[in-house]
C-alpha cells in the first residue's frame, strides 16, 4: 500500500491507498508509531483510496485509537468506501471510531 | 586439440593469420614471376640478337676474305693480254695460294677471248692433294648455261651462287663466288667472262653449328632461296627449303617468316611447331643475303624462373608450417593456465573450496584472472558458509513451526462425528491455516447433557502471534465454559481476560452459541464476527442479522448482549471465518458473501460434511489455484430435534 502524509489544521493527514492487509498493516503501524513518537497525536486516516482492509488492518486502527486516546490525542477516520465501511460495521468496530464523510469535516471537528 | 575455428583460440588465430600470409605471399610471388618473366624474355631476346649479330659478323669476315681474293686478281683478267697457259697458271696459283679455295675457274664469253674463234674455259681444282686443271666446255656440260656463269653475267655484278653438295671430289658443301669481268674496247666496257671460286662451306657450318643458346637452342643458315645450308637436323640440309619444310609441317606462320627472311628483314618470332613453342631470331647476311636464324624452345627460356619459383613455393610452405608451429606453441603455452583454471572451477563447483589455484608467474591478464578467481573463491566460501548457517536456522524454525502446528491442531476437536451417541445433531468442521500456524479457531463441547456450546473465532492477523492469541482464547473458553450458562456472560468473561495487558491491540472476532438439544433453542452472542448462516430445512438459507458487538480483547468493560432463536428439526447452521468470503482469485476478486449464500442455496444435502465439501468446492473453483491468503475455517451442524422426534421423522 501507499501512504502519503500531509500536515493541515494541526492534524497529520495519512492518505491511505491500496490494501491494508498482512503486508500493508505493519507499514501503517510503523508510520503511525513514527508520527506519535514525533509528538503528533492528532491524526486523520483518509481512506478514500483503500480497497480492502483485513483484520490485521483493523487491529492497527484499534491500536492507533487506543494509544491516541491514552495520550489525549485524536484519530479521525474519513472518506471510507462503502465496502470498507461494511467491514467496520460487521465487526462492530464502526462505533469505536470518529468517522467522517469528508476530509474537511474530519479536520474541522 | 581441435582445429575447428569455433572451438579453440589457437585454431582461430591460425584461421585469421594464415590466409592473409598466404595471399600476401602469392601476390608477391605473382608480381615477382610476371616481372621476372618479362625481364628474362627481354634478356633472352637481346641475347639471341647479339648471338645472331656476332655469328653474322664472323661469317661475313670469311666471306669478305674470299671476295677480297677475287677483287685482288680480277684486274689481271681485265687488263692483261693472256694466253691459255697464262690463264691456267693464274687459276692454279689462286688454288695453290688459298687453302680455303677448292677450285678456281675462268670462263670467257664465247667471243671475247683473245682468239675470238673459240670459247675458252679453264678450271683448276684440288684433287687428291694435287692441283689439276682442265677445260669446262664439253658436250655434257654447257658452262654458259650454269648458274655460276649466268647470274653474274645477267646481274652484271659479283654474286654467291646457291650452294651445292659436291660429290665429285671434295665431298663437301660448296658455294661458288662468281664475278663478271669486262674488257674495254674503244673506251666501251664489254662483258668478257666470269671468274669463279669454289669455296667449301665447312667452316661456315662449323661456325654456325658452334652457336649455342640456352640448353638446346641452335643456329641455322638459310640461303637466299630458302634452302637450309646448315641446321641441327642434317636431313634438312640441301634437301629442304624453309617453304617446303613449312608445307610439311603445315605451318602458315613459318611460311610468313620465310618470306620475311627472303625480303631481307631482321625479325623476331614465336612459333608453335610439333607441339613445342619456339622463338626464332633471324637476320640477313649482307654479303650474300643468306639468312642466319637462331632458334630455341621458349620453355627453356623460363626454366631458371621455374626453378626459382619452385624454391620460393617450397620456402612458403616451410615458412607457413614454421609460423603455424610457432603460433600453436606460443598460444598453447600462454593459455596453459586456463586448463588449470577450468579444472579448479570444476573442483570448486564440486564443493572443494580450498582447491589451490594454478600458479601464475607472469604479471599479465592471467594474473588478473588468477586474482579474480582467488577473490571469487574466497567470497564463495564465505557465502556458502553463511548460507549453511541461515539454512540450518531456517530449518530449525520450520521444524519448530511444524511442531507448533501439531500442537495447535491438537487443541481443536477433530474427531467426527464428535458425539456418536448423540442423536439430536451432527457436526463437521475444518480449519486450514494459510501459514504453518494460524489465528482461526473453532470449538464445540457439551456444557451438560442437553446443552452444546459452539464457538468460531478469528484473531486479527496471522502466523505465530495470531496462533498464540488463538491458543489463549481457546484455553480461556474451555475454562470459562462449564462455569457460565449464557453466551453473553461467557463472551464478557473472555473479553475481560483477553483485554487485560493487551498492549498490541490484538483482538478476536468471535461468535458463540449455546444450543438446547431438547428444544432447539439457540442463544448466541456475536463479537464482531461474520454472521453464520441458518440453513432452514427445505428453505432458503438465511444470514443471522445480529446486533453489532465489538470483537473481544479490546475494551475490558464492554457489555456484550445476546440473542436467541429456535431451530426446527432438520435446520442447520453454517459458521465460517472471513478466510471463506475473502478467498481471492488471481484477479483479486473476493469469494464474497453473495457467492457463499448462492453456494449454500444450491447445496441439496444438509449433511454437515457435505455442506462443507460443497462450499470448499465452490471456493476452490473461485480461487482457481491462487495461493490461499488467509486462514480458512468452516463449521457446519444439523439439528435433528430430540431423539423421539427424530425417530418419528424417520
Short description:
With 109 residues, chain A is α/β, with parallel strands linked by helices. Chain A has helices spanning 24-37, 55-70, 82-90, 103-107, and strands at residues 2-8, 11-20, 42-53, 74-78, 98-100. Chain A has a five-stranded mixed beta sheet with strand order 1-2-3-4-5.
Can you put this structure into words, describing what you see?
The complex is a heterodimer of chains A (109) and B (650). Chain A has one domain (2-107): Transcription Regulator spoIIAA. Chain A has 4 helices and 5 strands; from the N terminus they run ββαβαβαβα. Chain A has helices spanning 24-37, 55-70, 82-90, 103-107, and strands at residues 2-8, 11-20, 42-53, 74-78, 98-100. In chain A, helix 1 (24-37) runs parallel beside helix 2 (55-70). The longest helix of chain A has 16 residues, at 55-70. In chain B, the strands form 4 sheets. A 6-stranded antiparallel β-sheet of chain B has the order 3-2-1-6-5-4. Helix content of chain B is 44%, strand content 23%. Chain B has helices at 9-79, 84-97, 147-155, 202-209, 242-249, 252-262, 298-301, 303-349, 365-411, 463-480, 487-499, 578-581, 592-602, 608-623, 643-649, and strands at 101-108, 121-127, 130-134, 159-166, 172-185, 188-200, 218-222, 228-230, 267-273, 276-284, 291-297, 425-432, 440-448, 451-459, 508-516, 521-527, 533-535, 542-543, 563-566, 572-576, 632-639. Chain B is built from 15 helices and 21 strands. The longest helix of chain B has 71 residues, at 9-79. Classes of the chains: A alpha/beta (109), B alpha+beta (650). The interface between A and B is medium-sized, with 20 and 25 residues.
Amino acid at each position: 500500500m501507499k501512504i502519503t502524509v500531509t500536515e493541515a489544521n494541526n492534524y497529520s493527514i495519512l492518505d491511505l491507498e491500496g490494501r491494508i492487509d498482512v503486508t500493508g498493516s505493519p507499514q501503517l503501524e510503523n508510520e503511525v508509531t513514527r508520527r506519535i513518537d514525533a509528538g503528533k497525536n492528532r491524526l486523520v486516516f483518509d481512506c478514500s483510496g483503500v480497497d480492502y482492509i483485513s483484520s490485521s488492518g483493523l487491529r492497527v486502527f484499534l491500536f492507533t485509537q487506543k494509544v491516541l486516546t491514552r495520550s489525549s490525542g485524536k484519530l479521525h477516520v474519513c472518506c471510507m468506501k462503502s465496502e470498507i465501511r461494511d467491514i467496520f460495521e460487521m465487526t462492530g468496530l464502526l462505533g469505536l471510531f470518529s468517522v467522517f464523510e469528508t476530509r474537511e469535516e474530519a479536520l474541522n471537528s | 586439440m581441435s582445429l575447428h575455428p569455433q572451438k579453440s583460440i589457437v585454431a582461430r588465430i591460425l584461421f585469421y593469420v594464415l590466409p592473409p600470409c598466404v595471399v600476401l605471399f602469392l601476390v608477391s610471388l605473382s608480381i615477382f614471376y610476371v616481372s621476372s618473366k618479362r625481364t628474362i624474355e627481354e634478356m633472352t631476346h637481346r641475347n639471341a640478337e647479339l648471338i645472331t649479330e656476332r655469328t653474322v659478323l664472323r661469317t661475313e669476315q670469311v666471306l669478305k676474305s674470299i671476295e677480297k681474293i677475287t677483287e685482288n686478281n680480277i684486274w689481271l683478267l681485265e687488263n692483261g693480254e693472256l694466253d691459255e697457259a697464262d690463264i691456267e697458271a693464274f687459276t692454279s696459283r689462286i688454288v695453290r695460294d688459298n687453302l680455303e679455295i677448292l677450285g678456281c675457274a675462268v670462263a670467257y664469253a664465247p667471243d671475247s677471248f683473245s682468239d675470238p674463234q673459240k670459247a675458252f674455259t679453264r678450271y683448276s681444282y684440288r684433287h687428291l692433294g694435287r692441283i689439276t686443271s682442265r677445260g669446262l666446255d664439253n658436250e655434257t656440260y654447257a658452262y654458259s648455261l650454269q648458274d655460276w656463269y649466268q647470274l653474274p653475267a645477267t646481274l652484271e655484278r659479283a654474286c654467291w651462287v646457291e650452294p651445292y653438295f659436291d660429290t665429285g671430289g671434295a665431298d663437301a658443301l660448296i658455294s661458288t663466288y662468281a664475278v663478271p669481268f669486262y674488257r674495254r674496247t674503244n673506251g666501251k666496257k664489254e662483258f668478257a667472262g666470269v671468274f669463279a671460286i669454289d669455296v667449301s662451306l665447312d667452316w661456315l657450318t662449323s661456325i654456325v653449328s658452334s652457336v649455342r643458346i640456352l640448353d638446346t637452342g641452335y643456329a641455322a643458315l638459310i640461303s637466299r632461296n630458302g634452302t637450309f645450308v646448315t641446321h641441327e637436323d642434317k636431313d634438312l640440309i640441301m634437301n629442304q627449303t624453309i617453304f617446303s619444310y613449312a608445307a610439311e609441317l603445315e605451318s602458315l606462320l613459318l611460311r610468313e617468316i620465310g618470306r620475311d627472311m627472303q625480303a631481307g628483314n631482321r625479325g623476331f618470332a614465336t612459333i608453335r611447331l610439333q607441339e613445342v613453342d619456339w622463338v626464332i631470331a633471324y637476320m640477313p647476311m649482307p654479303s650474300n643475303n643468306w639468312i642466319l636464324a637462331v632458334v630455341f624452345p621458349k620453355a627453356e627460356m623460363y626454366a631458371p624462373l621455374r626453378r626459382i619459383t619452385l624454391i620460393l613455393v617450397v620456402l612458403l610452405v616451410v615458412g607457413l608450417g614454421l609460423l603455424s608451429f610457432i603460433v600453436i606453441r606460443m598460444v598453447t603455452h600462454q593459455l596453459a593456465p586456463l586448463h588449470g583454471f577450468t579444472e579448479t572451477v570444476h573442483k570448486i563447483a564440486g564443493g572443494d573450496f580450498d582447491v589451490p589455484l594454478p600458479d601464475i608467474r607472469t604479471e599479465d591478464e592471467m594474473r588478473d584472472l588468477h586474482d579474480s578467481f582467488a577473490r571469487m573463491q574466497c567470497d564463495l566460501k564465505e557465502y556458502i558458509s553463511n548460507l549453511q548457517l541461515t539454512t540450518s536456522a531456517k530449518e530449525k524454525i520450520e521444524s519448530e513451526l511444524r511442531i507448533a502446528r501439531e500442537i495447535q491442531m491438537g487443541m481443536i476437536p477433530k474427531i467426527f462425528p464428535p458425539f456418536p451417541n448423540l442423536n439430536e445433531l451432527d457436526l463437521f468442521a475444518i480449519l486450514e491455516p494459510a501459514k504453518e500456524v494460524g489465528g482461526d479457531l473453532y470449538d464445540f463441547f457439551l456444557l451438560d447433557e442437553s446443552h452444546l456450546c459452539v464457538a468460531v473465532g478469528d484473531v486479527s492477523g496471522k502466523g505465530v502471534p495470531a496462533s498464540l492469541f488463538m491458543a489463549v482464547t481457546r484455553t480461556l473458553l474451555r475454562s470459562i465454559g462449564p462455569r457460565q450458562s449464557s453466551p453473553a456472560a461467557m463472551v464478557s468473561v473472555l473479553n475481560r481476560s483477553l483485554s487485560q495487558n493487551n498492549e498490541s491491540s490484538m483482538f478476536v472476532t468471535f461468535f458463540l452459541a449455546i444450543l438446547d438439544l431438547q428444544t432447539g433453542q439457540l442463544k448466541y452472542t456475536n463479537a464482531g464476527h461474520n454472521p453464520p448462516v441458518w440453513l432452514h430445512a427445505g428453505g432458503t438459507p438465511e444470514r443471522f442479522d445480529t446486533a453489532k458487538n465489538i470483537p473481544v480483547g479490546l475494551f475490558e468493560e464492554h457489555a456484550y448482549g445476546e440473542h436467541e432463536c429456535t431451530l426446527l428439526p432438520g435446520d442447520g447452521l453454517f459458521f465460517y471465518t472471513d478466510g471463506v468470503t475473502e478467498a481471492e482469485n488471481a484477479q483479486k476478486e473476493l469469494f464474497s458473501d453473495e457467492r457463499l449464500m448462492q453456494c449454500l442455496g444450491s447445496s441439496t444435502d444438509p449433511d454437515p460434511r457435505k455442506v462443507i465439501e460443497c462450499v470448499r468446492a465452490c471456493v476452490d473453483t473461485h480461487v482457481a489455484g491462487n495461493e490461499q491468503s488467509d486462514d480458512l475455517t468452516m463449521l457446519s451442524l444439523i439439528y435433528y430435534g430430540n431423539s423421539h422426534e427424530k425417530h418419528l421423522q424417520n
